[in-house]
Design brief:
The chain is of the alpha/beta class and about 425 residues long. Helix content is about 50%, strand content about 15%.
Length: about 425
């Protein structure tokens, strides 16, 4: 038995699994929330001073997601082993120095490599990429040692199908709400509870130091040893350093103001009849194709004593222009742009709150029509609790739907090419 060849084979297959699963998972979770990844791309473009490319951020994000997913699937299934392992290596050679830069200078809070599904610090991302880079190098060198699941004649289908399916899946999550909501404002979430700090929660720990000067020499002292009894030392400055982060609630920035700059957050979260929020991070960029349905929803809410607000981060002039253009009669609230984009991936989007609980969310493509409004809203508002969406079940269905065509092609490939090749060799 050749132990060296066996060891290389095992390590090559392990590298295949590590790279393939990581790339496929990363592409898949980003495809669930392509709007979120587009926002992250814009953060990168801003951080590196290439804001002129923001107009293409959507196209860039869709293609990066699909390429990453395709490479992962091709590596997993051994399709185009040389090319897919080279692409994986190329991506890691690019990403590893980039994440080192992010870790050192922190221009972007997190790389977004797994979307909002798994949030890593920049240093954690860099360490992860070091491991993946080593695996990618090994896989590229020994790519012919991994077992292909298809014959060469079917490679084109594996690559094209993975890329196309990911683009289609991304678009579905872009044109509607994400299949799974990884953010804290998912349906069923109680916002006040997610804002609260539980009793006994770990608090931030700080180190306090004081700088004093004596005879032209400056020295730092801790809180318990500064020279309080020596008048020759002159106080210069104090320093505060966070040495350990305490408990941070999932929601920290849910704050809304009315047009008079009054904080109305508590009123919104404590309303027991229900509050409809038309979330439009930027009204000047929002889709206006459902204006009739929006106005009909406002009329229904107004008739039934349900509060209705449009929440935006736009300026007052932009809001007034929207009112003049659309004839909007509903009141406006102001909120942070990042907060509004986090609440719902739609501009505009409709959110129904009751007692601070997220009861329902609608993408602008899925707003209830004038005929549906009364049935939909009365059904929701008649309940005191709401059942969360069966997101994991829907994801499982999507994964099965993606796998079945690959399985059929594998069966065809086996009987049409691989088995016939074996018979010829025999």
């Amino acid at each position: 038995m050749d132990y060296k060849k066996t060891t290389i084979k095992i390590l090559a297959e392990a590298s295949r699994l590590l790279i393939g699963l990581t790339f496929a998972f990363s592409g898949f979770v980003k495809a669930i929330d392509p709007v979120g990844f587009t926002i992250k791309i814009n953060d990168y473009l801003t951080a590196f001073g290439v804001e002129t490319l923001k107009a293409l951020s959507g196209i860039i994000s869709f293609n990066l997601i699909a390429i990453e997913f395709m490479v992962g699937i091709c590596v997993l299934l051994g399709a185009y082993r040389r090319y897919s392992s080279f692409l994986a290596l190329l991506l890691m050679v690019f990403m590893t120095p980039l994440t080192l830069y992010l870790a050192l200078f922190n221009p972007v809070s997190d790389c977004g490599c797994f979307g909002d599904a798994v949030v890593l610090t920049n240093w954690e991302t860099f360490y992860k990429n070091i491991v993946l880079l080593v695996a990618a190098v090994f896989l590229f060198i020994y790519n012919q040692r991994i077992l292909p699941f298809f014959t060469y004649k079917s490679y084109w289908f594996v690559a094209l199908y993975a890329y196309s399916a990911c683009i289609f899946f991304s678009y579905q999550n872009y044109a509607h709400l994400p299949l799974k909501d990884f953010r804290p404002y998912k349906i069923g979430a109680a916002i006040p509870a997610l804002m609260a700090i539980p009793e006994g929660a770990e608090e931030d720990e700080y180190r306090y130091t004081f700088v004093y000067e004596k005879d032209g020499v400056r020295k730092e002292f801790a809180l318990d040893d500064y020279p309080s009894d020596d008048p020759n030392w002159t106080f210069v400055e104090s320093k505060t350093e966070l040495i350990k982060q305490g408990y941070v609630p999932p929601i920290t920035n849910f704050v809304l103001f009315n047009e008079d700059d009054q904080n109305v957050t508590e009123d919104i979260l404590s309303d027991s009849k229900g509050v409809l929020l038309l979330i439009a991070p930027k009204v000047e960029k929002s889709e206006d194709q459902r204006l009739d349905d929006i106005n009909a929803t406002y009329d229904y809410a107004n008739e039934h004593g349900i509060k209705f607000y449009c929440v935006t981060s736009s300026t007052k002039d932009q809001v007034q222009e929207w009112i003049d253009t659309t004839g909007a009669e509903y009141p406006f609230l102001m909120g942070d742009e990042t907060l509004l984009k986090t609440i719902i991936r739609s501009n505009p989007g409709l959110v129904l709150l009751k007692n601070g609980i997220v009861f329902a969310k609608w993408h602008y493509n899925d707003f209830p029509t004038e005929e549906e409004i009364e049935k939909v809203l009365s059904d929701y508002l008649s309940k005191d609790t709401v059942k969360p969406r069966e997101e994991d079940k829907q994801i499982a269905i999507c994964l099965v739907a993606f796998t079945v065509p690959l399985l059929f092609v594998w069966i065809y490939d086996y009987f049409r090419y691989r088995r016939r090749k074996k018979n010829i060799n025999v």
